[in-house]
Design brief:
InterPro entries: Papain-like_cys_pep_sf (IPR038765), Peptidase_C19 (IPR050164), Peptidase_C19_UCH (IPR001394), UBL_USP40 (IPR057763), USP (IPR028889), USP_CS (IPR018200). Residues 41-353 form the USP domain. Residues 1-12 have a biased composition (Acidic residues). It holds the Pfam family UCH. By secondary structure, this protein is of the alpha+beta class. The chain is built from 29 helices and 58 strands. The strands form 15 sheets. Strands 5, 10, 13, 14, 15, 21, 22 and 23 form an eight-stranded mixed β-sheet that branches. Strands 51, 52, 53, 54, 55 and 56 form a six-stranded mixed β-sheet that branches. A five-stranded mixed β-sheet has the order 27-24-30-28-29. Strand 48 and strand 49 form a beta hairpin. Helix 23 (1015-1039) crosses helix 25 (1056-1067). The two termini are 33 Å apart. 32% of the residues are buried.
Length: 1365
């Protein structure tokens, strides 16, 4: 991927080396970091497995489930061979992998654990992990799979024992009092949310209230044998130890005919008393005991809508496995009001609601937002923006979000809601000592002590202890002020510490954070309660290894050792740098510069030793490595060697700062990766002392002076001089050469600002005089740089100066590459030289000038010229019957000389590739008459390529991809659109008969397993790509001699050393931007577009005929019942675009041609869309606090523009689909090719004016500019109620900014030289995600009802369970 950006030797003015051996550094896989300070472990998201992660974490933090799971020994659940995933029905893989997952969550020193081995045991092989499911449904299916997998074991009743309960439906006759009961079992209780406000209210409605069956709804009593009035009720009969409650938030709106999520507030308690919902007598066992009291320990939270979202969980650490540290939101102490009887004078708060309500209550009158914020800043010393804006948004947005607490009147003044009762009594505590960090000791805290010292009440407590029971001394306060102070949050008692687990992220939270999940887009979805009477043994507290078998402890210990080794390897790889050594014995100092003396003809790099070292080591290690690896003959004799940095400049090699090898400091303080070092004795190079430092750099300049033998002639001499050379020395040297008296001479110079690009400037050049009074200045001070021309002329005449200026203004300085004579032992390296020629000369004159500099022995077969363009690459051979201007030769072109016969005036050159294209095969060329037909061209190409059989020709697009097929072989090349330099593909197979087309059929299928990168890895790739792009752009600016090398340079201090180091980093950048890099930035494809077959079909056939032909060929992966269940859409540049809708239209009407690519997608139901419909992909924006936020996976909508295609109609359609009112809706279309977001809004209405032309203006349409909407376009949607008001109009994501930079870099690279034309395949990596029918998750397991324990020895060997399946 990394290539030399500079190319030839004379194209590297900035200096720099490439790796002499061309070896690439091996990559080392990055490992997960160790656990954070919470000492708990998360789970990696495989794509859309957040629902599974939340459920697995809940099971893991259920001690009873984990204890019973680990009671199953390996002898009981059997062993399995390494290829067990291929025969998952034969082994109890699910419980084994659940044990492995739980063991790693407990003991593995890793921030997050992969669940791939567990999902593999589910039998998932069709990318099931990429589709999100309902966590409640997954809970039921997973429990069923566990039960079936544990049949005929001691753990067969794990699920029923822990989670199984029952309820009874009763119908009691009012006549005879006969009661009919139907008992039903449950693993979880569905809870109605709509129209209710709390869990107790919903349970009361479900299990206490009765329903009377009367009137038309009478009940048929078996005893009375008639329809009678009856009472129906439902009540709980048996309660499990772990009670699971599923909040039914997803509902269906029959009026709007769509699903929606109920986001209203629905509270639930920490302590739940279920006794009122259960029979007073359970199964005849006597009165109900205290087992009906439950404590909340897990809350599964869903954020988003019915069409997509994310799951996470709040977990209470019952076993005290984690380390609870203060969360980011610390408690804040506010001066108490006069009415408060707080002896300390301060009250503390943990959330913004209590804090702001306390401040408003002190103001007592309705206040403006500025008054409240000023009071907050005065009392606390912090502002709203500093503390709360990132979490809660703007101040007014926060006020309006909590109407039950704050009232905002018409004058935008805020007051407290009269019905609001502050609960800061529970949060208020005296300023006392707090628990900074929880201890891992298993000691129990006294309830009264913990409730007062820690500010928490254990849920087991029924009353609050009085403050007088535990008096605390008043803190010593400063009399200066009573401003609010920060205090570290108190530590909850063991067993009541809550954590938020969001996939891989684990963070501690306050218990009160649960109340924020009562309602909203992000709200509680499942609740897990645990019986209060269950007590864990002391031996299980604070011990992750409790209940674990020794085999699992040993396996995880081995796994940790492996992780540690991988981290060490990654650290070593990350800190390894390559250094290239140059030895003074192979250099000499001649003509003011260091010159390399090659050891042999094949050695041109000047580097004789490559050393790889760890940059963390001291410099002494580097010195030892050099001594051990260097050839003793190359080292200085008798003295210690010295290292200096060396660079290759246009004027020659030059030495810079000395590297202190004697110091004990680390290598990274002085050296970077790929640095080049010069090893010498520190005194001289073969007896000559070379200059050192940037002030004495050699520069390459041209002396121009009168020819002493010709009155009107001149001489040009290219020399190397140091930057600190005085002008007086240059003047004396020049005057000596031209023999002009000093009093009659004048010196001027012309600065070639475009020297670094390899061309000379064209335009009106003005020579800069160099008078004698500047003789004491150096060349650097005068602005004389590489490529400058110093002219010595006679005073008064200036004949030489005029000649030079005229030539420079009217002469092209062309760089010529001689490909007739490759350099010895370097077959791909060619000699380059320069030719100056007048702009209006003929091509034949240029060719004659070039031939004078080429060995005639290499020109016996004839030569021809080509142009190498920075953007187009290598152009076809030049016709020699035209001028330079007609041929398009200017200062930005490089001329290539190669063997061959040039084309005549009536001939054209065609390039072709035989499909399939191979990277190691170059394109071939043929020369044809411009009147040749397509058939004649095909015959010449087939003969030239020595092909047999049937073939046809195909045109290519601008980036070399297959395009239109040349079907009519009787057309001339000119009529077919094939011009000189055209590029064709030769594909096998004869063309279909006339009137038929050959279509390529693809199918949309899920991606292979593990093909999608994680968000973290993609973010790392984007960071690395962004860094490379910025360095590349900075390098381009430097090549243009721009003073501001990069944005970072402007931020550096005016230190020459820092600026020099940055310039060196920019110079060594080897990144080359390519169109393929765009794929890394595009949104990832949801489906793979897989080729399946080709079809020949008549253009007069309809779309339905095409569908039937595809269906009857049996090439699809699934059966399609009718043609309307098969969607057909075009594939353009690797993306799905237009959807072919009208089944009665002919293929000719769709403008399909041979080679057209069509993707088919089987649908679960018939779809018939009119042509006026647009099928769009809708992505909902989710603010994350970071710039741009992110979008949820897109969902498909159908926009029917039959009545109107205006932006207003589209906005109304999106509003109906997303349930977002129009006033809160913001929509934008994404242009992927330009990384641009186009807001969709109705154009402003303009006042009507009288016009002579009575025709009405065209109505706005989303199909027209600037929107140009078409099928499968990506549409972004924002709900401004959830957005930061300052970022409503910000659509660009952080990756879009990287894409815009990459487009600029690609445009810049096209101006530079490119060795090949159109070989970079440009393909988009984004496509529409077709709406998939909702299916339940499937877990595959075997039948163990008649299972006999397997012999632990298989083939004489004990087979261990695979650690990473």
């Amino acid at each position: 991927m990394l290539t030399d950006l500079f190319g030839e030797e004379d194209d590297t003015p900035g200096g720099g080396f490439s790796a002499p051996d061309g070896k690439e550094r091996l990559s080392v896989e990055r490992t997960n970091p160790p656990r954070n300070e919470t000492n708990l472990c998360g789970l990696a998201n495989q794509g859309a497995t957040c629902y599974l992660n939340a459920l697995l974490q809940t099971l893991h933090f259920t001690p009873e489930f984990r204890q019973e799971l680990f009671k199953l020994g390996r002898k009981e659940i059997g062993q399995c061979p390494p290829d067990a995933t291929k025969h998952c029905k034969e082994y109890r893989l699910i419980p084994i992998q659940l044990q492995r997952l739980s063991a790693r969550l407990l003991l593995a020193d890793e921030q997050c654990i992969s669940t791939a081995f567990l999902t593999d045991s589910f039998g998932w092989s069709d990318n099931e992990e990429l589709f999100q499911h309902d966590v409640d449904e997954m809970n039921r299916i997973l429990f069923s799979a566990i039960e079936h997998s544990l049949q005929n074991t001691t753990g067969s009743q794990i699920i029923s024992t822990i989670y199984h309960g029952s309820f009874v439906n009763q119908i009691k006759c009012k006549n005879c009092s006969a009661c009919r009961e139907i008992k039903e079992d449950f693993l979880h209780i569905p809870v109605t949310v709509v129209g209710l406000h709390s869990l107790e209210e919903s349970l009361h409605k479900q299990f206490v209230l009765t329903e009377t069956l009367e009137g038309d709804n009478k009940y048929h009593c078996g005893s009375c044998d008639q329809l009678v009035d009856a009472v129906k009720r439902c009540h709980l009969r048996h309660l499990p130890p772990i009670l699971s409650l599923a909040l039914m938030r997803f509902q269906y709106d029959f009026v709007r005919n769509e699903r929606y999520k109920e986001t209203g507030k629905f509270s639930f308690p920490q302590l739940l008393d279920m006794s009122q919902f259960v029979d007073s007598v359970t199964e005849g066992a006597g009165p109900l005991s205290s087992d009906a009291h439950y404590e909340l320990f897990s809350v599964v939270i869903h954020s988003g809508s019915t069409y997509g979202g994310h799951y996470k969980t709040y977990i209470r650490d019952i076993q005290n496995l984690g380390n609870w540290v203060p969360p980011e939101e610390e408690k804040i102490l506010v001066p108490a009001s006069k009415d408060d009887s707080n002896p300390s004078g301060y009250a503390n708060y943990t959330n913004a609601i209590d804090l702001i309500s306390a401040i408003i209550s002190r103001i007592k009158t309705p206040a403006t937002p500025s008054q409240i914020c000023d009071a907050l800043r005065h009392d606390t010393g912090i502002s709203w923006s500093q503390r709360f804006k990132s979490t809660h948004g703007t101040f007014m947005k926060f006020m309006k979000k909590h109407p039950d607490v704050f009232v905002v009147d018409g004058a935008q003044k805020v007051s407290l809601n009269p019905n609001f009762v502050p609960d800061n009594q529970q949060e208020m505590s005296f300023v006392t000592s707090v628990c900074d960090t929880p201890s891992n000791d298993s000691t129990t805290l006294n309830n009264s002590q913990s409730s007062q010292t820690n500010g928490y009440l254990s849920p087991m407590d029924t009353s609050m202890s009085e403050p007088g029971n535990a008096p605390r001394p008043d803190p010593v306060e400063s009399p200066a002020s009573k401003k609010m102070k920060r205090q570290s949050p108190v530590c909850p008692p063991p067993g009541y510490r809550w954590f938020e687990i969001n996939d891989r992220c684990v963070r501690p939270i306050h218990e009160k954070s649960i109340t924020t999940m009562y309602g909203g887009k992000e709200s509680a979805y499942m609740l897990f309660y645990r019986q209060s009477s269950i007590q864990l043994p002391e031996s299980a507290l604070n011990r992750p290894e409790a209940w674990l078998q020794d085999s699992w402890i040993a396996e995880v210990a081995e796994y940790n050792v492996k992780l540690m080794k991988q981290r060490e390897e990654y650290e070593i790889h990350l800190n390894s740098i390559c250094l290239y050594l140059h030895f003074a014995t192979t250099y000499c100092y001649i003509d003011n510069r260091l010159q390399y003396v090659p050891v042999d003809d094949s050695d041109t790099s000047g580097c004789l030793l490559t050393i790889t070292v760890d940059r963390r080591n001291p410099m002494a290690v580097l010195r030892e490595e050099i001594l051990s690896q260097s050839n003793p003959d190359l080292l200085p004799e008798g003295v210690k060697f010295v290292l200096h940095e060396i660079r290759d400049l246009p004027g020659g090699f030059h030495l810079y700062d000395r590297i202190p090898t004697e110091e004990d400091c680390e290598i990274k303080k002085h050296l970077n990766d790929n640095d080049h070092l010069f090893l010498w004795n520190g005194h001289d190079v073969h007896g000559i002392i070379p200059p050192i430092g940037s002030d004495s750099e050699p520069i390459l300049i041209t002396f121009t002076y009168p020819d002493p033998t010709d009155e009107y002639g001149k001489k040009d001499e290219e020399v190397t001089r140091q930057k600190d050379t005085l002008l007086s020395d240059i003047r004396a040297e020049l005057l000596f050469k031209c023999d002009i008296p000093p009093t009659q001479s004048v010196l001027t110079f012309i600065k070639d600002s475009s020297y670094e690009s390899g061309t000379r400037s064209k335009g009106n050049l003005t020579p800069v005089p160099l008078p004698p009074n500047k003789d004491n200045q150096t060349l650097s001070q005068l602005g004389i740089e590489n490529g400058s021309q110093i002219i010595a002329d006679r005073k008064g005449k200036k004949i030489i100066t005029s000649q030079v200026v005229d030539e420079r203004n009217n002469t092209l300085h062309l760089r010529i590459e001689d490909r007739c004579t490759p350099i010895a032992n370097l077959a791909s390296t060619y000699r380059t030289f320069s030719v100056d020629i007048m702009c209006d000369e003929h091509i034949s004159i240029l060719k004659e000038a070039i031939l004078t500099k080429i060995d005639p022995a290499n020109c016996t077969e004839g030569v021809r010229l080509r142009i190498e363009d920075a953007s187009k690459g290598l152009c076809p051979p030049i016709h020699e019957d035209q001028t330079l201007k007609e041929a398009g030769i200017n200062k930005n072109k490089k001329i290539i000389v190669e063997k061959g016969t040039p084309p005549s005036a009536t001939q054209i050159t065609i390039s072709y590739h035989v499909s399939p294209i191979s990277d190691d095969l170059d394109a071939r060329e043929v020369i044809l008459e411009d009147s040749a037909t397509v058939g004649q061209c095909l015959a010449v190409i087939v003969a030239n390529a020595d092909l047999t059989g049937g073939w046809h020709l195909r045109k290519t697009n601008w980036c070399g991809e297959a395009a239109e097929i040349l079907e009519d072989e009787e057309k001339t090349l000119d009529d077919a659109g094939v011009r000189d330099g055209g590029y064709l593909l030769v594909e096998e197979g004869r063309l279909p008969p006339k009137g038929f087309v050959r279509l390529e059929i693809f199918q949309l299928v899920p991606f292979p397993e593990g093909s999608g990168p994680s968000i973290e890895s993609r973010r790392l790739e984007m960071t690395e790509l962004n860094s490379n792009i910025e360095l590349y752009l900075a390098k381009c600016k430097k090549e243009k001699d721009t003073k501001d090398v990069s944005v970072d340079v402007a931020k550096e201090k005016d230190s020459n050393k820092n600026r020099e180091q940055l310039n060196d980093t920019v110079t060594k950048c080897n990144y080359v931007p390519r169109e393929t890099d765009l794929i890394q930035i595009y949104p990832p494809l949801q489906h793979e577009i897989r080729f399946i077959d080709q079809i020949d079909i008549s253009l007069t056939d309809t779309l339905d005929d095409l569908k039937l032909q595809i269906m009857t060929l049996g090439i699809l992966d699934m059966q399609v019942p009718i043609a309307s269940c098969l969607r057909v859409q075009e594939v353009v540049e690797g993306r799905t675009q237009r959807v072919l809708k009208d089944g009665q239209h002919t293929l000719k009407k769709f403008k399909l041609v041979s080679g057209s690519k069509l993707a088919v997608c089987p649908m679960n139901e018939g779809q018939i869309f009119p042509n006026s419909c647009l099928i769009l992909n809708l992505a909902l924006h989710v603010p994350t606090g970071e710039p741009g936020g992110h979008f949820l996976p897109p969902n498909e909508i159908v926009f029917d523009s039959t009545e109107s295609s205006s932006p207003t109609a589209l906005l109304q359609c999106i509003s109906t689909h997303t349930n977002i009112p129009l006033v809160y809706l913001r929509v934008a279309k994404y242009r992927m090719d330009k990384f641009e977001w186009i807001p969709v809004r109705e154009p402003p209405s303009t006042p009507r004016k009288k016009r002579k032309n009575k025709t009405s203006p065209p109505k706005p349409s989303v199909r027209n500019p600037p929107f140009n909407m078409k099928d499968n376009d990506l549409i972004g949607v924002k709900d401004i109620r959830l957005e930061d008001q300052d970022r409503l109009n910000e659509w660009y994501l952080e990756w879009d900014h990287v894409g815009l930079k990459l487009l600029i870099a690609i445009k810049e690279e096209k101006r530079r030289k490119r060795s090949n034309k159109g070989k970079d395949v440009f393909a988009s990596d984004f496509g529409s995600r077709t709406k998939r029918a909702e299916v339940i998750p499937v877990i595959k397991f075997g039948d163990f009802s008649n299972y006999e324990p397997m012999d632990t020895e298989l083939n004489g060997e004990i087979m261990e369970v695979p650690k990473d399946i």
